[in-house]
Every structure is written in C-alpha cells, then in structure tokens.
User: Fold this.
Amino acid sequence: MPKFVLDGKEIEFEQGQTIIQAAKKNGITIPHFCWHESLSVSGNCRVCLVEIEKMPKLSIACATLAADGMVVYSASDKALSARNAVMEFELINHPLDCPICDEAGECKLQDYAYSHGAGESRFNEEKTHKDKRVPLGPLVMFDGDRCISCSRCIRFCDEIAKEPQLTFVKRGDRVTIVTYPGKQLDNPYSMNVTDICPVGALTSRDFRFKARVWELSKTKSVCNGCSRGCNINLEVRNNKVLRLTPRQNDEVNSFWMCDHGRVNTYKFINDENRVDGPYLRRGGTLVRSGWDEAFAAASSELKSYSKNEIAFIGSPYATCEDNYALTKFASSIIGTKHIDFMRHVDQTFGDNLLRKDDITPNSLGAEIVGVVPGKGGLNLEGIIKGIKDGNIKALYLIEDDLVEGNHELQEVFAKLDLFITHSTNFNKTTELADFVFPASTYAEKNGTIVNFEGRLQRLRPAVATFDVDRALEGMSLSRWDKFGTKFDSWAEGNKHDVRSTWRIIVGLSGAMGHKLKYGVAEEVFWDIAKNVSSFSGLDYGKVGELGAKLKLELNTKTVTA
Ligand code: SF4
Ligand code: SF4
Assistant:
C-alpha cells in the first residue's frame, strides 16, 4: 500500500484518496469547514491548508491527492499561520453572538476560534450585516450574519436530497444563501442542513432556543418512523426528549435522517396524554388502578374464556423482546394459536434515499420472533372475522392504535367481551379497552428491532420512568450509576409509571400462576437467541452500536417498501 508522512507519522492510503480523507481514515482530523466526506469537494473555506515538502505554496488537504512518499505538515509554522489568517478572515464579519446562538457548543467556528484563532480582532470597521431569522422552509431558519459561505447546504440539496433548492447570490462579503425563486427549503431531508452547517447559520425551527446543547444527554438509539431504522441520538433534558439527531451508520443511513423521523416521532413521548399507570374499566369508565390489582383482575377475566376464544395481536412498533414475550404468553400460558399483527404501509412515504413505505420500525422483527398464527390459528383477518362472528370474545393487543382512522375496526372491537391493550398514550383504541396497561416508549426501554433488510439494532432508555428495575437493564447502567441521584432529582415529577411490554406480560403471567423468568430485557433476548435461529449466537454486546445483520433463513415474507 502506498504511504505518505503526515506530521511525522507514516500513513497508508488508497490511490485516489485526498490527504484529508487518508488522514481521517487514520484517525487524524485536519481542520475543515466546507469539506464533508459525503459531499463533493468545493475547496472554498481554505482552513485545511497544509504544507507539503517540495511544493512551492500551501495546498488544501481536501482537494490534494495523497501521493506515495509525500511529506505533509498540518501543524508547521507556515500551515498554522495560514489557518490563523483564514480564521481571522472568517470572523471579520461574524456577529460573535455565541451566547444566543443555538449552535454554540457544537460549532466548528467556535471550536476553531479557540484552537486556531488569533484571540483578538484587528477589524475596526463596521461589519457587513445580512438578513437574520429568515425562514428558508417550514423547518429551517437562516441567519445570514453567521454564514461562512461553505456551500455544504447547497451541495446537500443538490447531491443527497437531489432537490436543488438553495444557492448563493451576490459576491464578496455580501454573498448570502437564498432559495431559488418560487422555491423553499422543503425537501423531505431538509433538516440535515442544520447538522452539517458548520456554524449557527442554519438552525432547526423545531429545536431553536429549547436548550443549550451541553445540557442535553445523548443516548444512542434508532428512529421508529419507518422500517429503515436510521441511527439516531435521543437528546434529552429534564426528562423530556427535545430533539433527535442522526448518528452515522454507513450500513443504514450514512449521516442522514428524514424530517418526518426527526420531528414527528418523539413528541408523543413528552405528551400530556401518556398512559400514566394501569387502568381498568369500572361502570363504563376507565379508572386508574394499582399494578397488582390490574394484573389480578385481568388474569381472572382471561381465565374465564376458553383458549380458542382469545386472540392476540402483536405490534410492529414494539421491540422483538416485547413481541416474543407476547408469543410466549399466548402459546404457553393461554394456549391459543390465534396471533398475528398488522402491517402499516404507506405507499406515498418511501423514496430512493432512506424512507421506506413500511412506516413501522419492527415488522420484520415481529414476524421473525413468531408473531404469526400457529398451525390452525387465525391470522389478523380471521381474528377480525372471529370477533364479528362472536367466536373470538377476548382480544389482547399491544402497542398499536389500530382503531385510529379505521371505523370498521372500531365497530368490531366494540363487540368484544374483553379487550386488553398496552399503550403508550391514550387514543381511540384505549377508549374501547377494558384494561389499559401503560407501555414504555422506545425511548424508555432496552430492546431490539429489525429493519427492512434484516439488520438487528438496539434501543436504549433515554428517559427516566418508574420502571425501577430499568436501572439494571444492561447498557445504560453506567449512565444511570453516574447520574443516578442528579438524574432522579431533576426527573422527579416528570416520570411516568410505565413498563416495557415484556415486563407487563411477566407481571400478568405471574398473576395467572406462571413464572416467566425474565428480569431484564437482555434475558428475553437470550431466550430469543436460544429459540429463534436467525438470532442464534447473538447478544446485546454483539449487536453493539451499529447493529448486526441477521441470517434470514425462515419463511419470512420480507417486508418491502
Ligand atoms: S448556511 Fe451554513 S452550510 Fe450553508 S453556506 Fe452558510 S455556513 Fe455553509
Ligand atoms: S427514513 Fe425512516 S427511519 Fe430514517 S429518519 Fe426517516 S422515518 Fe426515521
């Protein structure tokens, strides 16, 4: 492999790689604003200037190909003084409004001003002023004063979203970003420009002024907005999820996520209408009860039906652990084979970048872990017909508001003698239920989901709940230990009395006289790994931060978009 020397260190590279690419591959970051590894090279910010032996002038590392035997200095006196000059130039007209800028704390300009700036300004003239608070589209706000004209946002729209919507106008120090005439920044991926804008010129209208970024805890998770399963960070303050940001995973979503996933999939977690404890129906009204009381009542109701009168509906929104526990409960404790789940497909949602028509995160996982009718059992259609005909009298449904927008199902479910559901929020379905158990959202539990191409990925709790055993649930232990007391005190009053669906099922099984021996989510996972061949040999450690591809050898109908 060819090699070159960077700051005294020998570096291997592949033919065709630029100096900045080869350095990054070897864990060395050369300062940059306009360069982004997923975008074309524009070479306009000049902050990556490096000195190369035998070259008469400094070169930009983002556009100079590495060559065998080359000797490069990124921190020589010449390189540092050039970077210093570039920083002085970038800051001449900058408003220096970090105290009120959303980007502060994650701003490249701020970071480089500390590490490479002169520390003072020699510019005494009036700064140029540009438009501030310009809504470029429904979700992105532009502050012209802060823009350093790196063109990342323009290139993102042109090259990744494939919807040219932004451009530069004017010249020199008056140059600024605008949308093309008659257009706005409204492509389905528009908010990614707020992540890649290296300064606070482009900010999220959904998140602006909600928190300083250093106040947010970040938990690695997966978007639940469709079956792509984009990797994300759940960003939380005071026990409320305040924003989702994409997390790089080259196998799934590269650096990106869609706007729908970013703004529409977390608000229900903070919503006022969360189911805040177990509820049971008394005299026609749902009333709050204790856990033991609800388990005992639900168990005695379930025992009054024969196994063939009871059906189960799993959920493509619930984790593999939740769905698996449901299948165990249905088959081993109730003894019914009537079990299925509903797929939710929106043929207008998918595209060629990330979004998939299957708008649920785990339909493939639900199917793999066995939420399918047993031999001779009823599928979803059969269950609905069975309820209509009066053969199915009791229904157990987890984490899916099937009634919303479905008048026919509303009428069908109203015929049930017993309807038990687990739900994160009160909704049309809970209105019909006799028992409502409060389910943790994907941001409040450990678990796994399987994306449309069979990649198993981890969810981790980011929001505190009264699910006390959760502190034991695997990966978040160190975080809970570290922040335990402080976290509890500021989460106090905001915590919901909810449980992971699998844990609710463990409680109900106990009330029915059967012990499901799961204490933490990973124990459910181990059971799946023992009994479901696609999961064989896996554990949470092996799934890791970026997921693991499953060997799909079953009769799975692949869920495609
Ligand atoms: S708005 Fe941000 S990303 Fe776009 S050119 Fe200006 S600094 Fe670069
Ligand atoms: S593409 Fe799907 S998984 Fe990715 S962010 Fe959008 S909704 Fe979420």
Summary: Residues 123-209 form a domain with the Alpha-Beta Plaits fold (CATH 3.30.70.20). Confidence is low (pLDDT under 50) at residues 468-490, 556-561. The longest strand covers residues 231-237.
